[in-house]
Amino acid sequence: MSGPAILLVRSWPVGAFTCEMTIQRPESGVLVNSMVEWSPAKPSRLSADEWREYRRGRNQAIAEFAGELGIGVAVLEI
What we know:
Blueprint: E1 6-14, E2 17-24, E3 34-39, H1 48-69
Antiparallel strand pairs: 1-2, 2-3
């Protein structure tokens, strides 16, 4: 069984790691979700500089996705 089709992918470096954000092809009228995967593994901690790198890359990827899909975006950090 195959999963939903991946529509967009963006990657960026965070220190010694790489983040990859993917968005699945959205259905009309449905919220768009993204997924972030870390390589080679999810870090247990990030330094303040790494957090800035992560957020900068994440925000750029989300802005590009929003522009390509023609949608508004909200990011919530809890």
